[in-house]
Design a protein that fits this description.
Blueprint lengths: L1 H21 L12 E6 L9 E8 L2 E6 L5 H4 L4 E5 L4 E3 L13 E6 L6 E10 L6 H5 L1 E11 L2 E17 L2 E11 L2 E15 L7 E11 L3 E12 L2 E10 L2 E11 L10 E6 L9 E7 L4 E6 L10 E5 L4 E3 L14 E6 L5 E16 L4 E3 L7 E3 L3 E2 L1 H14 L10 E4 L7 E5 L1 E2 L3 E3 L2 E3 L2 E2 L2 E3 L1 E3 L12 E3 L1 E2 L4 E11 L3 E3 L5 E2 L5 E10 L17 E9 L2 E10 L1 E2 L8 E9 L9 E3 L2 E11 L1
Parallel strand pairs: 3-7, 18-22
Antiparallel strand pairs: 1-4, 2-3, 5-6, 6-7, 8-9, 8-15, 9-10, 10-11, 11-12, 12-13, 13-14, 14-15, 16-19, 17-18, 20-21, 21-22, 22-45, 23-24, 25-32, 26-27, 27-45, 28-31, 29-30, 32-43, 33-34, 35-43, 36-41, 36-45, 37-38, 37-44, 39-40, 39-43, 40-42
Amino acid sequence: MIRNSVLQLLFLVTATALGLASCKPVEELSTEAEIKTFTFDTSVEANGIVTSQPSIQGNTISFTVSFNASDAQLAALVPTITVSENATVSPASGAAVDFSNGPVTFTVTAQDGVTTATYTASASKNEPSFPIDGQLAGEYKGLLDITLGDAPVGSDIPKNITVAKVDDKTVSLTLKDFSFMGIDLGTIQVDECALTVSDVPEYEYSFSGEQTLVLDVIGEQHITLNGGFSGSTIHITINIDFMDTPVVVTFEGTRLTGNESGEALITSFTFDSSNPANAAVYGVSLDQESRTVSVTVQEGGDITALVPTVEVSDGATFTPAAGTPIDLSNGSSVVYTVIAENGTENTYTVSVYGTAAYFYDFETWVEGTMYADVLNPDGWATCNDAVALIKNMGPLFGGISYEGEYPVRPTDDGLEGKGAIIESVYTTGGNILGQTIPAVTSGTIFLGTFNAMAALTDPMATTEFGILFEDKPLSVSGWLKYTPGDEFYDENGQIIDQQDLGTVNVVLYEVSSEDETLNGSNIYTSENICAAGSYETAGAEEFTEFNITLDYIKDYDSSKTYKLAVIFAASKEGNQYRAAKGSIMVVDNVTIICE
């Protein structure tokens, strides 16, 4: 009995346990198969081409990449994907996926292993963006090369080309004042040049365009144009059908920043006298207003291979190149082109202006007409004879004692060899035989004659200015130094606060006879004056070139008789007995240029 009871109890426990087990529900597996997020981690190098993160619209995933992304880059993208809980996705998150062949299908499998969903992911390239405003548009300075047929007809021609924005994908190009072989074709402008991302390794961006233009001389022509940008450089090829012969113009230029100088001037045009090729040149005049350079040469001299020294504005260049010989013989002229940093151009015409008819180098000095100790430069009169009268007659007739040097005297410190010193000297003041002696006698040298005897009646008449002159003078040039004195005396012998000035005056006047002359009283006021010019200086420590162009107030008549006066004065107002003690001018190499 006991045994049966135990068996019944075990059966009951087992049955209860089985009954409980059969009542627990079976666990259901998820059927959710959804892509929750689809992104590209751009810190991953392979994903650097992604320009916008994917957008999920239903079962479509789209994203953009750089317009210039390559197939190799598209084949190496690595997406990061999250899916429904316990679901899986293929291709897997974090694996490289090839988008180079178009859309890629991603399959999501739910937890139950049966339910799936498919998503199509595709990449599209951005439209290219062109940096027209910030990088491409602007003025480009460079050089043109031109061929006509297969023959070069121009090389390294300085020019500017302008690139302007039309829209976000288009530019216009303009080449102004185009010419070759002396033929002016006018302006070449192509209004619409389409930009593309370049497939040429040398360029970042390419462009091309075409247009029918009406050009000067040749009329209507079809123009094609293409090229590329590389950094700040542009390369252009222009094709023109010129009289049924192809003209090819190539240009390479650099974009200007806008800060470049626009000054295109010849600032100095000289001839080095140490170069034997320049031996015939006497002087040069540079006129900025007319953009001309006038060269004065010795008649009969060789001017077929002159070698000028040219200086131009900072940053500018010029042609013909430095050191290039130029031929000015037989009336020839040479045109120099100066190109500023920004491409602005100026042209200067260089030609012979006149013949150096007279040249004075002050190497030869001769005795004065009155006193043996007076020296005057050969061909010139000076104030030395006046000071000699003061020196010799002053103690006898006026109680005046002057022991100093003569105002005009030779010096070995000329521009080349000897020169002439012209000094205003202190002669104490007073009078001799009733004639006033200034406190300071202005140093003076002039073309003309000193008439000592006139001093007894009219001191102004002592300076008989001018020598007979058969040619028409155009200009007077030379070299001088000047140091003004410290103490300026007025006509009353009183020291006043005034700056002394050194002067050079040139006067051409008409005379009726050889004996007629102008003097200190009328040399600047006479109605006989035909032409005049002047130069003055307040100081020049080193030799400075002066050039006086005569201003003709009357027509020159070669049938008339003229005298020419060239007057150097150490004190501008010396003829009014006003001068500074110790004002010194040193003069050398004076040239009179004639027509």
